[in-house]
Amino acid sequence: PIPCVPWQSQTSGSGVEDSDFFAVRQAPQQHARDMSYGGIRTMFEEQDGPQLMAKLQEEVFRVMDSYEWSQITKGMVVQEVEEVLGFQLKEHHKRFIKITIMRIIERSR
């Protein structure tokens, strides 16, 4: 069940009482851990082939070397990697690609 919490302790002009409730979906507790680099590495180990992480990283380097960085976005890099690999990437794959992009940029400074 979705937990409900009180909205406000006032009434509106439409006669809405302070006892009215609205539903709130809570974020999964593991989300922050799962999307950290260590969490992502664990997800690769549990869900993917042993070489996928290296292949994704290789493709990110290829894309980053093919364009002026000011002309591309992280989303464009993700899309191009997805097209080259020929399958839809999972969320942890996309997050890993974005982390890789940021590391490339940081190392170039």
Structural class: mainly alpha
Strand order of the largest sheet: 1-2
Give the proportion of residues in helices: 55-70%
| Uncertain residue ranges | 2-12, 17-22, 29-33
Taken in chain order, the helices and strands follow as EEHHHHH
Q: Major β-sheet, in short?
A: 2 strands, antiparallel
Number of strands: 2
Mass-distribution shape: globular
Number of helices: 5
Oligomer state equals single chain
Strand content: 5-15%
* Rg from Cα: 21 Å
Mean pLDDT: 80
How far the N terminus sits from the C terminus, by CA atoms, comes to 49 Å
Written account of the structure:
The protein is mainly alpha-helical and 109 residues long. The chain contains 5 helices and 2 strands. The chain has a two-stranded antiparallel ribbon. Helix 3 crosses helix 5. The protein is globular. The relative contact order is 0.12.
Brief rundown of the structure:
The chain has 109 residues and is mainly alpha-helical.
For this entry, give a set of tags.
109 residues, mainly alpha, two-stranded antiparallel sheet, 6% strand
SSE blueprint and pairings:
Blueprint: E1 4-6, E2 21-23, H1 31-34, H2 37-47, H3 52-66, H4 74-85, H5 91-108
Antiparallel strand pairs: 1-2
Helix pairs in contact: 2-5, 3-4, 3-5, 4-5
